């Protein structure tokens, strides 16, 4: 059974702003699926052999001009563990079996790699994530108020730490500047924000 190996950049532990960051997309698509699909795709993006809007937009949200510098600092995997289908099926959602495997794999990967913040760039996939320890209300991009079209968040237990996960729009369906503001605001949130939100609630 095919399961895409996640991309772990060589500087993942150093991270971005001292934080270990995981990027999660929806799925790969194509006719030649194999375990190395993610590894080969990110390597092609870094080398310039592929120019993919999804990857280019995300690195720009983090204010990185150099694609290699960004992708070498993060963990990346798609939620679905194998390709959603051929190229013409790229907008499919995923089968129940894929979703079941994805839920187990998501928890396994965050436990193994211990990201501190997980950016999920697929609001359509957000409801299919595994049950969380807490689910927060949507937060406005700039003000922090509980309103608007900013982002949603939740937390997971991962060994002896809490992992903060954030749901954002897919880069192909979102204007760049609001997305950049959302990412920058999430990066600026203290790693203890989840605990404080829980205690104040």
Q: How would you describe what is shown here?
A:
- By secondary structure, this protein is α/β, with parallel strands linked by helices.
- It has one domain (7-200): Uracil-DNA Glycosylase, subunit E (3-Layer(aba) Sandwich), CATH 3.40.470.
- It is 32% helix and 17% strand.
- The chain is built from six helices and seven strands, in the order ββαααβαββββαα.
- It has helices at residues 37-47, 53-61, 67-71, 96-113, 176-188, 193-200, and strands at residues 7-8, 21-25, 74-78, 117-121, 134-135, 152-158, 161-168.
- The protein has a seven-stranded mixed beta sheet with strand order 1-3-2-4-7-6-5.
- β6 and β7 form a beta hairpin.
- The longest helix is centred in the middle third of the chain and has 18 residues, at 96-113.
- It is globular and about 40 Å long.
């Amino acid at each position: 059974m095919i399961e895409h190996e996640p991309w772990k950049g060589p500087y993942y532990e150093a991270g971005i702003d001292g934080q270990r960051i995981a990027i999660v997309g929806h799925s790969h698509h194509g006719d030649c699926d194999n375990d190395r699909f993610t590894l080969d795709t990110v390597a092609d993006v870094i080398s310039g052999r592929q120019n993919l809007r999804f990857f280019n937009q995300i690195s720009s949200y983090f204010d990185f001009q150099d694609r290699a510098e960004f992708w070498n600092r993060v963990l990346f995997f798609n939620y679905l563990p194998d390709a959603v289908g051929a190229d013409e099926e790229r907008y499919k959602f995923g089968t129940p079996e894929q979703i079941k495997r994805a839920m187990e794999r998501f928890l396994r990967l965050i436990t193994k790699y211990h990201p501190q913040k997980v950016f999920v760039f697929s609001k359509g996939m957000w409801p299919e994530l595994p049950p969380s320890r807490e689910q927060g209300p949507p937060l406005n991009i700039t003000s922090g108020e509980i309103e608007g079209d900013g982002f949603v968040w939740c937390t997971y237990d991962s060994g002896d730490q809490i992992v903060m996960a954030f749901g954002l729009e897919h880069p192909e369906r979102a204007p760049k500047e609001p997305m950049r503001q959302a990412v920058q605001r999430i990066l600026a949130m203290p790693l203890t924000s989840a605990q404080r939100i829980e205690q104040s609630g």
